[in-house]
Amino acid sequence: MKLAHAARRTASALAVGAMSLGLLTVTSGSAQAVANCSGNVSVYGTLADGRLTYTAIAPNTGDRLRTLIGPDLGFTPKAMATLNFNTVLVTSTTGALYRVDVQTNDSALALAGVEKIWDSGWTFDQMTYDGAGHLYGTVDGQLHQYVVSQAKPQGSQHIAQHKVIDTGFVLKTLAAAGDDRLVASTADGRLLSYKINGVNDWDRSILKADGWSAVDSLVSPGGGLYYGRTNGGMYWYHDVDPTDGDGDDVAYHPNDPVDASGWTQTLLSANAGNCAYVPPAPPASVQGGQISRSEVLVRAKNWYSRNVQYSQSATAVDINGDDYYRTDCSGFVSMAWHLNSSLTTQTLPGVSTQIAKSALKPGDALNYSSTHVVLFAGWKDQAAGTFYYYSEGSPSSDMNYNVANVNSGTIDSHPASAYVALRYDKIVSG
Questions:
Q1: How far apart are CA 290 and CA 268, in angstroms?
Q2: What's the pLDDT score for residue 336?
Q3: Could you give the CA distance from residue 10 to residue 293 in angstroms, rounded to a whole number?
Q4: What's this model's pTM, rounded to 2 decimal places?
C-alpha cells in the first residue's frame, strides 16, 4: 500500500485489520499530479458480504491514506453512486434504492442509517453522480438521467425529472468526471469521454483507442483524476484538461499505483465533488506568435457573437481591437490563429501542417484549397466522425457554428472528401 508519511502512524493500526481482509498491498514510489481538490479523494465501496468500505486517497500523489470497513448494509448491492462526503445511493439486486448516511469515516466507518427511499424499478447496471445535481445510470444500453435536488434525498420528490438520454451506451465502466461529463471504458478497451447536453444530444470523444479492457471499475472525483481497477490493483491517472476530449494529455502512473493489488470490492464509487477543473490562463498571444487552442476558440467565438459580415474585400478588427483581418473564410481562420496577415486557402498550408482528420483537435482547420476553410471546434462524436465548426460561410450566411461529418456529406455545402486537416505550426496546448 502507499501511505503518506504524515499518515503512517495513525493508519498503522487500521492497516493491520484491513490487510487481513485482503484490501491492502504494500508498494513503493511516488508521483505528482496537479488537481484542484477541496480535500482527499473519497472512494466508497462494498465487499462481497455486503459491508461498506471507505478509502481516502491523496489527490496529488495517489497515496492511499486509510481504508476503513463498516457494517453490513443489510441487502445485496448492485450499483452505487456517491452524492457527497457522507451520502451514498445504493441499489439492491431487487431494484430498491437506498440512501446510506455515513456518520463518520475518520478513524472508523460508522453509519447514521440506511433508508430505503424507493421500493423498485432501480435496475441499473451502473450508476454515477456528477457532483452537480445529475444522477446517471445505464441499463440495456440506455443512459438515464435524474435531477437530485437535496443532499439527503427522501425519494421521488428529491430525485426527479427522469430522462432517457439515448441508447447505444454499452459500457463496461462508468464514472462522472464533472458537471454532465462522464468518462467510461468499453469491453474492447476504449476510454471514452461524454458531454451530456440533453435528450438525444451528447458529445463523445475517444480518449484512448485501446488498452483499457482490463479495467473493471472506474471512478473519478472530478478535476481530471481517474482511478481504474485492474486485476485487483488500483491505478490512477490525471487528465490535464478533462473538457477537451483529448486523451493525449492523460498521464499514467503504472509504476506508482494507489495499490498494486487487494481492491476486492464488488462496487466502487467516488465523490465527484471532491475536485474541480480550473483551466489555467495561458499567456495571451502576439500577432504571428504561439497561441493556445483555447485562445483560438475565444477569438473565433468573438467574431461569431458579433456575426461579422462576410466579404472578400472588407476587414474587421479582432477581439483585442488591434489587428484587422479580411472577413472571408480564410481571413477568419487567419484571425483565429492570430496570424500576421490574412492568408488565403492556398497560402494557409504554408503556416500549418497537414494531419489526419481523425487527429483533429479544437483550433485546427479543415481546408479545401482555392475554395473554402473552416475552423474545427471539437468532436460531437469522434467515433462517428461528427464535429462542430466555426466558419465565415458566405455572403448569405456570414458567421456560422454548425455540425458536419469529416468523412461524408458536405461541410458548408462543399464535399467533405475535398477537405484536408491542417494544424497551425505555432498552436500549443491550453
A1: 43
A2: 98
A3: 46
A4: 0.89
